[in-house]
């Protein structure tokens, strides 16, 4: 069973990951658990891999009954939970499991922006066929294993599970769940998750020259999962950080919970995005962490300083392909990059897997020092998965969206 080995100070220092911040933000402060809570969580984590579970009506001696969300039609613009997908049931007999496969009882699923791109044809991340299971990364417990899988039932694993209660997957496509002390188990999908916290860390520290003390950093979709972590990480370097998000509730989250230096409301009726950027970034922008693309990125490029760095993590404004007639709208202000001698670089976290040990160590170290935390919004039951997706693209959430599959919705 996997355990988390203590960090060595020399490893952190050699990666040059230490940064100073006067005081933790309110979000970070509230995330630091008491000793009693921590001990309770550690005991729970230790129990997860060994406890005998009570009888489950969805399992028999030779099969499991799976519930999964499948794509019934391709979205016409915005994703519609009530028309684009369908919840179906299927039996997965143990006799159908290949020698290198396992069946995982899904516990928690991550709701990520890339899922939407897979619903269109010719998608960058690969298209889900009609009738195919919706994609999702998650973790769960192995209930059956093929003889050549090298995995024993009862082990907790994480990987690309799909939006379903049971997943039959290749054992080699999963990894053991790391137990991070002082963190809830859901942190393996959130703050310490590959598509969330570790993506944010990679974009801030590894893709371009990291932000410097006193520089101005702008993070788009800053109230979302990746954006909120990226903003805190940028703040930990001593930079001045401005977040962009829509609505007064998210503005309050950026300023009061994350402790950012400025917030821009792209939904404001009182002032334009450009006017707000003029007020919050009077000295220009040195570092952009972009999750949105489109017109927002265009407005930011207009204000970049010489030697600015622009990190492209995503473009959520462009993911509903049919709204743009299947076209992605690139920035018209891209010549500002040449004019200012700036750098714009896109990335996928999978391209930086060689940095994963440093990324994990660095993120955990910053968490323990009170520099970063993750706000989670958890929906209950597999039935809630498409609603959670719709919330993500409708801007109806703050922080990380998760679905607790085994918690049955009342």
TrEMBL record:
Lineage, highest ranks first: Eukaryota, Sar, Stramenopiles, Ochrophyta, Bacillariophyta
Region: Disordered, residue numbers: 15-59
Keyword Oxidoreductase in record: yes
GO MF, any single term: oxidoreductase activity, acting on the CH-CH group of donors, NAD or NADP as acceptor
Membrane-spanning residues: 349-368
Origin species: Entomoneis paludosa
Gene3D superfamilies: Medium-chain alcohol dehydrogenases, catalytic domain (3.90.180.10), NAD(P)-binding Rossmann-like Domain (3.40.50.720)
Protein's UniProt name: Enoyl reductase (ER) domain-containing protein
Domain Enoyl reductase (ER) intervals: 82-403
Keyword Zinc found: no
UniProt KW keywords: Membrane, Oxidoreductase, Transmembrane, Transmembrane helix
């Amino acid at each position: 069973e996997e355990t988390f080995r203590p960090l060595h100070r020399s490893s952190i220092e050699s990666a040059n990951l230490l940064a100073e911040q006067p005081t933790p933000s309110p979000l970070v402060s509230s995330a630091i658990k008491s000793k009693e809570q921590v001990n309770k969580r550690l005991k729970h984590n230790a129990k997860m891999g060994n406890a005998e579970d009570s009888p489950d009506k969805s399992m028999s001696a030779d099969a499991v009954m799976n519930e999964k969300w499948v794509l019934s039609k391709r979205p016409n613009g915005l994703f519609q939970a009530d028309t684009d997908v369908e919840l179906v049931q299927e039996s997965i007999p143990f006799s159908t499991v290949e020698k290198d496969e396992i069946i995982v009882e899904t516990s928690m699923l991550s709701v990520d922006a890339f899922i939407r791109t897979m619903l269109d044809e010719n998608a960058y991340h690969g298209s889900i066929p009609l009738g195919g299971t919706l994609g999702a990364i998650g973790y769960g417990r192995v209930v059956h294993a093929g003889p050549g899988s090298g995995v024993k039932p009862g082990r907790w694993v994480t990987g690309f599970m799909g939006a379903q209660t049971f997943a039959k997957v290749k054992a080699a496509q999963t990894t053991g769940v790391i137990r991070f002390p002082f963190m809830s188990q859901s942190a393996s999908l959130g703050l310490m998750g590959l598509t969330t916290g570790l993506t944010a860390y990679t974009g801030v520290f590894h893709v371009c020259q990291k932000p410097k003390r006193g520089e101005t950093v702008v993070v788009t979709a800053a109230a979302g999962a990746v954006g909120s972590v990226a903003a805190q990480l940028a703040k930990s370097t001593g930079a001045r950080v401005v977040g962009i998000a829509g609505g007064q509730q998210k503005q309050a989250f950026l300023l009061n919970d994350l402790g950012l230096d400025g917030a821009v409301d792209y939904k404001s009726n009182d002032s334009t995005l450009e006017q707000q950027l003029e007020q919050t970034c009077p000295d220009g922008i040195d570092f952009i962490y972009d999750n949105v693309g489109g017109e927002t990125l265009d407005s930011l490029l207009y204000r970049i300083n010489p030697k600015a760095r622009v990190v492209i993590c995503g473009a959520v404004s462009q993911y509903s392909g049919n709204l743009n007639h299947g076209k992605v709208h690139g920035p018209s202000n891209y010549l500002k990059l040449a004019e200012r001698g700036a750098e714009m670089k896109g990335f996928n976290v999978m391209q930086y897997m060689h940095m994963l040990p440093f990324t994990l160590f660095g993120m955990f170290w910053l968490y323990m020092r009170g520099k970063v935390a993750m706000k989670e919004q958890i929906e209950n039951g597999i039935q809630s998965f498409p609603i959670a997706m719709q919330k993500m693209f409708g801007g109806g959430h703050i922080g990380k969206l998760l679905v607790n599959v085994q918690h049955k919705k009342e």
